[in-house]
C-alpha cells in the first residue's frame, strides 16, 4: 500500500497581457546537497492516483482530489472483503494481498506523514446501532487501522448525518463542513465508512503580501480573468522540456513540497495531461534536479470540489463491491454491498503557504561556495499548469487536481 504521496493540482492559469514569455535559456543551477532530495517514487506507485484523476478530469473545469483519502476509506472495506471483491480492490488500489502486512505498512506510512504536524489523517466506521459487526473486523479496523468505531441511530437520518459531518469538519479544520446529506443514509444503510485528511504548511520561502498584484489570468479558451498573482525570486528544483517547465517548492520543515508543471502556452494543459503516464519519472526527475533561481509568479487559489465516485471507480475495475455478488462477509456475514461513495476536497494557496483537505464517505447497505549571480529563469504561472504536493521522504501523493480559474 506504500505509494508516492503528492498533492497534484492542475491549474489553468491566464498570463498577464504584458508578461514576458518564459526564459528558455539554459538555466544556471545550484548543486544539490546530499540528502536534500525526496525519495524518488518507484514504478507504479501513483497508478491509482493518476487513473482516478484521469477519470474525473474528463469533465471540464477545475479538479482537486485526494486519492490517498479514497484509498484509505476503501481500506476499511477491504478489511472485510473476501474473494473476487477483495481481489478487485487489491488490483485497483494496489493493496497487498496480505491484509495484515498492508495494514502495518499503511499505519507506518500515516505515522510518517503525521510526524511534523503539517498533515493529519483519520478514519471512522459508523455503524447502525442495531447492526452487529464481526468482532475480528472491529479489532482489525480499530487496532490495526486506528479507526474509530461508533454506533449511530440511522433511523434519525438528520442526527446521524450531522454527527458524521461534525466529525469530518473537525478533522479537516472546518474546511469540509458537510460531507454527506440525510439522503446518503437510506433505510437499508448499515455502515458509513469515512476518511478525512488535512494539510497545512507555510512555504519555506514565503511570498510578501505587498508584492502580490492583480493581473490577467489567461484561460485555455483565450479569455482572461483578473486574479491575484503572487511574485518573488526564489530557488527551487527545476527542469524543463519543450512543452513545459517543472519546479518544486518546499514547505517549512522540508518534509513536504509542491511540484508545479507549467505548460508553455495557456492551451497546453490537455497535452500535458495526456502524458500523465510519465508522472512517476517526472517526479523522480524533480527529486534529482538541482536548484535554479526563478522569477516566480503564482496565483492565489481557493477551490472546493465534490465527486460521486461510484461510476469512476467502476470504470477503473471496481465492480463486485457495488453488485449483489459483493462479498463483504468479513464485516458482518453476507448480504452487504457498497452503495455510495462521496468525495470532497478543498485547496487554498496564498502568500503564507498551502492548506488542503479532503474527505471520503462510503455507504454500505444490506442487499436485497559563492558563485557569480546565476541567470534567473522566469517561472510565471499565469496560465494552465499542473502541480504536485508531496511528502518528500516517501514521495507519497496526497491530492490530484486541476485549477481552471484561480477563483475556483
Q: Could you name the ranges where pLDDT drops below 50 across 5 or more consecutive residues?
A: 1-45
Tell me the domain tally.
Answer: 2
Which class do the helix and strand fractions yield? alpha+beta
Could you tell me the strand content as a percent range? 25-35%
CATH topology of the largest domain: Antithrombin, Chain I, domain 2
Order of helices and strands: EEHEHHHEHEHEEEEEHHEEHHEEEEE
**CATH class descriptor name of the largest domain:** Alpha Beta
Number of helices: 10
Tell me the radius of gyration.
22 Å
Q: State the helicity in percent bands.
A: 10-25%
CATH architecture name of the largest domain: 2-Layer Sandwich
The CATH homology group name of the largest domain? Antithrombin, subunit I, domain 2
Main beta sheet, described? 11 strands, mixed
**Average pLDDT across residues?**
87
Shape category:
elongated
Using DSSP, what is the number of strands?
Answer: 17
Question: How far from one another are the termini?
Answer: 32 Å
Oligomer: single chain
What is the fold's blueprint, element by element?
Layout: E1 6-11, E2 29-30, H1 47-56, E3 63-65, H2 67-78, H3 83-93, H4 99-113, E4 119-128, H5 135-144, E5 148-152, H6 157-171, E6 189-202, E7 213-218, E8 224-240, E9 244-250, E10 256-263, H7 269-273, H8 279-288, E11 291-299, E12 301-308, H9 310-315, H10 329-332, E13 336-349, E14 353-366, E15 377-380, E16 385-391, E17 400-403
Parallel strand pairs: 1-17, 4-5, 11-15
Antiparallel strand pairs: 1-16, 2-11, 3-17, 4-6, 6-14, 7-8, 8-9, 8-11, 9-10, 10-16, 12-13, 13-14
